[in-house]
Amino acid sequence: MNEYSDEERKFLLCLAHRAIAAELRKEELDASSPSPRLAEPRGAFTTLHRFGALRGCIGYVVPLFPLYRTIAATAVAAAFHDPRFAPVTVDELAELQVEISVLSLPAPIAPEDVEVGRHGLMVTLGQARGLLLPQVPLEWGWDREKFLAETCRKANLREDAWKHGANLEAFTAEVFGEKQPAESLR
Fold it and tell me: How far apart are CA 45 and CA 28, in angstroms?
């Protein structure tokens, strides 16, 4: 069962687009929460795709702000501050598809308890940290060991660091997004 209604989901997806457009236009984003649930602090990631390819993904693991503010901030960060990509341009706005992942709190997990497709993972060793959302291993067809290895790799650690002292935490996510570019704006 979904935690968020269709209306709340559409609001958050539309808010992500509006936040990106406001940033491009150097305008103030006019946003407030339409429901108490969207005002609750939650960790979340906003992922942007363009023509089916990743265009940016940024998020907060821990709940720092109300969810609606987290989505606005992570959408702007994914569009303009993901170091893997050039900033989004005005010409790309109508071509962006937004996907949102609202996270549970991370909790320690044993490697053998990781469930592909259910858990997202965060691995930490010293200052190194890597995170992959629950949908990533499904998109790539990974099994549990490959998922653990790739999360370590994301942290710039050896792929077997999860066997040698790295801290492993899991979380779940409610994931929803647009099937077509800028669908939530229609």
Answer: 22
Helix (H) / strand (E) element for 125: namely strand 120-125
Q: Please tell me what DSSP assigns to residue 43.
A: E
Are residues 46 and 99 in contact, defined by beta-carbon separation less than 8 angstroms? yes
Both 123 and 91 in a single domain? no
Structure-token pair, residue 65: 């702000």
Q: Find how far residue 44's CA is from the centre of its chain.
A: 5
Residue 137 placed within a domain:
yes
Examine residue 1 and state whether it is found in any structural domain, yes or no: no
Residue ranges of alpha helices (H) inside 26-174 are 67-80, 135-140, 144-154
Per-residue pLDDT of the chain (186 residues; tens, 9 = 90+): 789 999 999 999 999 999 999 999 999 998 888 889 999 999 999 999 999 999 999 999 999 999 999 999 999 999 999 999 999 999 999 999 999 999 999 999 999 999 999 999 999 999 999 999 999 999 999 999 999 999 999 999 999 999 999 999 999 999 999 988 888 887
The model's pTM: 0.90
Residue 136: alpha-carbon gap to chain centroid: 11
Q: Which domain holds residue 38?
A: 6-104+173-185
